[in-house]
Amino acid sequence: MQLYTLEYHKAAERYDNIYRSMWTIFSYLTAVAAGFLAFGADRIEHHALICIASIPLFFWLVTTYLPLDRYGNRVLNRLGEIEGTLNRDFQLHLNHFSRDANKELSVFRGLWRALRKRSRWDVWEQVRRARFAIGFLFLVLFALVTYEYVGFRHSGYGLFLEKPSAVTPAPTVHNVTVENGKF
After folding, report:
1. Is the pLDDT score of 179 beyond 70?
2. Structural domain of residue 80, as residue ranges?
3. Is 161 within a domain?
4. Domain assignment present for 166
5. Could you report how far apart the first and last alpha carbons of the chain are, in Å?
6. Is residue 75 within 8 Å of residue 103, measured between CB atoms?
7. Domain count of the chain?
8. Are 120 and 25 in contact (CB under 8 A)?
9. Is residue 132 part of a domain?
10. What is the pLDDT of the chain when averaged over all its residues?
11. Does 162 map to a domain?
């Protein structure tokens, strides 16, 4: 029982750390994207700026969210297995993770399965999850970036905006008379 308990505690800690780090990285990359928008607005063509500012968010989705979420789902399934073993072999009543461990955790497969069942409740259960909101927002962001990229390609402007050269006024000569060394 001690080994199962130790594994259970470590897995629960790992599960928490996975999602905590995922959202910490998201907040950092969101700050980077905001920095591009704030400091690049007067230097980069606006269509291109939106595309460039979206790069950190897409980077987070592909390199952080999807792999860590997949890993977190595996940890969740293992936690459910451990709870089942502890409940069965040691007559405990743990259910912190077991009710979610066997659910379909993929947004697309879960939503597809719910739509095929034609159950409004099952569809609602899939739509109200954070994974669905993240997927939906990134699809909208992808559509926006595609639209802005097409706008940039058709704008005829370069990536960087040209700064107007500073025009120095020509020196003016005033009628000055000098009397006895004084102006």
Report:
1. no
2. 2-155
3. no
4. no
5. 102
6. no
7. 1
8. no
9. yes
10. 86
11. no
